[in-house]
Amino acid sequence: MTSLLAESFYTPGRGGHAPGDLRKAFIEAVNAFEAWNPREPEPTVEVREQQIPISRIFGLLWNCSDTLPGEVRIHVADLDPHGEIRMTYSAAARWLKAQVVSEYRPASSS
User: pTM of the full predicted structure?
Assistant: First the structure.
């Protein structure tokens, strides 16, 4: 993670305003999540010329206080069986990462 954000003032642990390229990758990750067949490997998105798993972009925006664009808010709510509206990148990222980790990652075989 260090090399990915080496030249950025954004620190995922502190959160705040995330760079535009990370927010754009988040939206691409939401689309990839929706299209993902859980029997397939976790999708990736390109960030700063690197392919990263969608769970990682969700983790990078875990504390991002930026407000989600309206259409993304609706899209994320449509993915949630309860239709909950999440207003910030951090709220959506936390829910989406939990979905990837708990429901979609294949169980490790012994």
Answer: 0.83
